[in-house]
Amino acid sequence: MQFEWSPAFSVGIEQLDREHQYFFELVDRLGLALRQGCAASELGEILELLTVWTAEHFAHEQTEMRRNGYPEPETAAHLVEHEQAAEDLAGFRLRAAAGDMTLVASELASRLAYWANTHTLGTDMRFGAWLADQRHTAAGGH
Ligand SMILES: [Fe+2]
Ligand SMILES: [Fe+2]
Predict the structure, then answer these.
(1) How many CB atoms lie within 10 A of CB 21?
(2) Distance from the alpha carbon of residue 6 to the mean position of ligand 1, in angstroms
């Protein structure tokens, strides 16, 4: 499966969009590495990049939710998904340090596809839709 970010996935905040685009690029890079049979050697670096990305992106998203007054329970539920993703990623890092790299890479690819579909294109876009609605109202729309 090929992952490509599209402007249709925008959450209305440029920095977050750029970060989502980068995430999709990493997912795509892992998929390509698997298809080319070099996932085992790429896995370590992809996990490193994902770990840095996760810490920065989740913090940025949390800041934007608070700054824009995103309500509860949506914010808390969203942050729980971030925590779970970070824990999952830590688990993959441990397994990569100990196990069959190609198997770990292929399971990581499935997990990333699942995150992209359920979180980035689900939970994150719900925040984006809410934000668009707020801006519309603030601009005097109905
Ligand atoms: Fe996100
Ligand atoms: Fe998120």
Answers:
(1) 15
(2) 14
